[in-house]
Amino acid sequence: MFRVSLRSWLVLAVPVVGVLVLTYSATTSEPRASADWQAAEPLRDSPLPAGGTAQLSKCGVGEWPRPAPRGKGEQSKAPSLVFTSWGFYDPGSKMPGEPSFTVHAAIRTGDRPLVLDAPLAKGRVTLDLYGPHGEGVRASARGLTATVVESGYMSKPVEVPASGSFRVEPGKELLLDVELPAGAVCPGHDLADVIKCSPEHTNDVADCPVLTLTLADPAVRAYRAGTTGDSAAGSFSDRLVAVSMELETSQV
To answer: Is-contact 145 127, C-beta < 8 A?
Structure first.
């Protein structure tokens, strides 16, 4: 990793298997070490201005990045949720907009179309970020909503189809963005350095944070049940889960 000037885009690009391959840092200030921060009293969850909840009570908690499955098929290959990249963007003083940290992902289906109502997974998206070396949670937000976007750099939101739903065709993918709210970042970090590795200049992915993105939709459960022909649809998970890096797949 290396530093570039302000107003640059920090990108962590990951392939489908979830292995970190590239990071750009976009801040000139020295990040604050969360290890030096000590809470005077337990942090409490709090509502976020744009909706959802900052799960600050999880700060520093050493959870396993992949949540426990809440039904069958949660790790099936179809449908699936995969990361495409993530990063921090600072527009600077001469450009409109505020600094932001955005996670880019894609939903892929199997040999049948997947139809998802808009807004996509409204209020049913969770984003967690875990520091390396047992640091625990650095940021956590639940109750978010994903934005369906066009492909390309600084992609634009896609208008909701007249049908009121997004259709994912076999062999295609639905691109989406999820914003990490600044209020969901734990004390000791901010949007600019929340993805910082430790040590900062490292070639070892085990030194870098792990992201977990989940979204839930009833259509996912119905799709999984239909794929297997199982009439007990309620036994299947309605959730798609993406983990950027899983160090020990035997624990998944």
So the answer is: no
114-154 tens-digit pLDDT: 999 999 999 999 999 999 999 999 999 999 999 999 987 66
Residues 106/116, Cβ–Cβ less than 8 Å: no
For residue range 156-189, what is the model confidence (pLDDT) as tens digits?
999 999 999 999 999 999 999 999 999 999 999 9
Contact 13, 24 (CB under 8 A): no
Rg (CA), the chain: 18
Could you give the CA distance from residue 250 to residue 252 in angstroms, rounded to a whole number?
Answer: 6
Q: Residue 119: is the preceding peptide bond cis (ω within 30°)?
A: yes
Helix (H, G, I), strand (E, B) or coil at 157: strand
Side chain identity at residue 40, one-letter code:
A
Whole-number Cα distances in Å, 89 to 27, 31, 180, 192, 194: 10, 16, 12, 8, 13
Token pair recorded at residue 168: 């994912």
Where would I find the beta strands (DSSP E) of the chain?
2-3, 12-13, 24-25, 46-47, 53-54, 80-89, 100-108, 114-117, 125-131, 136-144, 147-148, 165-168, 173-179, 210-216, 239-243
Q: How far apart are CA 177 and CA 185, in angstroms?
A: 18
The tokens of 54 are what? 């900052």
The answer to whether 169 and 113 have CB atoms below 8 angstroms apart is: yes
Alpha carbon 201 to its chain centroid, in Å, reads: 23
pLDDT beneath 70, residues of the chain? 1-41, 153-154, 229-233, 247-252
